[in-house]
Amino acid sequence: MNAIMQRPGIGKIVKSNSHVDYVCQIYGPGEVERMPAPDDYSFGAFVSIPLESPGNEAASLIGVIYNTLLLNPEYGNVGPRLSPRNEIEVFSPDYLSETATLVGIYAVGWLDDNGRIFQGVPRPSAAVNASVAPLRDDEIERFHRNARGDLALTYFPLLLGQNNPLASPLLLAILDRLSVLFPANRDRLAVLRNNLAWKAIVQPAG
Questions:
Q1: What angle (nearest 5°) sits at the alpha carbon of residue 39, between those of residues 38 and 42?
Q2: Residue 2 carries which DSSP code?
Q3: DSSP category for residue 199
Q4: 175 - beta bridge partners?
Q5: How far is CA 146 from CA 20, 143, 154, 156, in A?
Q6: Taking Cα atoms as reference points, which of 23, 31, 20, 196 lies closest to residue 122?
Q7: What three-state secondary structure class fits 147?
Q8: How many C-beta neighbours within 10 Å does residue 154 have?
């Protein structure tokens, strides 16, 4: 597989909760020339995170967005505002810059220095301030093919093992996306989706 083509990023890594769970802050007004579109960081969107590999741009983590958190310092401020918003923008811009959109990303695989694909828990880890960029459909398709060219979903147990109530909806969203990208595997994906949807209903009730 060729290296993931780097394109304008949607944000940067600001922290991690575990080796596979990262937090990305979406770029705000004035930080980049082109503001990220909401679809670029929607639930279930696949992204790439370049790894620090001097002299080689092939290495990167592959992740999927599973959560969104909005930060707003004005929430809960019930007191009177001393200055209107337009004056705050001039005299206290740092206050407004505290508003942010954060997204959670599960790393589900990686590309090594030679561009080879690996699914599952990544060996390398991302660095703080690493750029996060969306994947194109053809890149998502290539990531989901093994060495024989067959559909591969070996990272699914990793997502199911996160003990997150959003794991099942996330997997369903991924299967819906893959059924479009892999029409020859649509029946197989439909069976997997039905089983997953059934378990998502039955297990909480049990």
A1: 85
A2: P
A3: H
A4: none
A5: 21, 8, 10, 15
A6: 20
A7: coil
A8: 13
CA distances to 34, 45, 183 from 70, in Å: 20, 18, 36
- Residue 25 pairs in a beta bridge with 12, 102
pTM, two decimal places: 0.84
Q: Which two tokens stand for residue 201?
A: 């209903």
DSSP label at residue 4: P
From the first residue on, what is the mean pLDDT of each consecutive set of 10 residues in the chain (206 residues)? 64 96 93 89 96 71 96 61 49 58 97 91 93 95 94 95 92 97 96 89 60
Measure the N-to-C terminal CA separation of the chain; round to a whole number of Å: 43
Q: At 13, which helix (H) or strand (E)?
A: strand 11-16
Domain coordinates of the chain in residue numbers?
Answer: 11-152
